Amino acid sequence: MIELYGYWRSSASYRVRIALNLKELAYENKVVHLVNNGGEHHSEEYARLNAQQLLPTLIDGENVLTQSGAIIEYLEEAYPERTRLLPESFLERARVRAFADAIACEIAPLGNLRVLNKVAELGADKAEWSREWMALTFKALETQVRDSAYCVGETVSMAECFLVPQMYNARRWELDLSPYPNLVRIDAQCAELESFVKAHPDNQPDAA
To answer: What is the reported pTM?
Structure first.
């Protein structure tokens, strides 16, 4: 049985939950609370699994994987017979990875809990900070998806695993989404799919 160490509102955990569901891979949810007891991800027990003390961590047999993008790529290669999350075309695969990286590298690190805590310590407004960096990248992504049914092409891919959790965060931080109608459209299409519904933070056993 695959084990996923995550937290209901962790974007990176959310990405992997979507991928597991799309591939129809059963997994056991292992809750690591990011706030309780100073953050359970800082415990010695969890640090033995993930030296970075970040979420998520996935265990598949003897294999221990960290970083959501790497985990999803692992699932794609370890279970190629299941629903594909990367296109057959090498060019389309590159485009999917670029879309995912725009979120994982340009938005997510600046919205990480430890970064937001430091922002607050420095006297800045966390919500305003989050909205500014999301808007900057969303503006670029919006132009990339205007001519396709999904983020890259006509089918769901790894790109949606990254977009949908970020859209959840955008709403949480009250970002005005009206300038991004195509991102909203794709997010709404995904919201109709069971794999995404099951992965939604509100539907997790540890949801507050």
So the answer is: 0.94
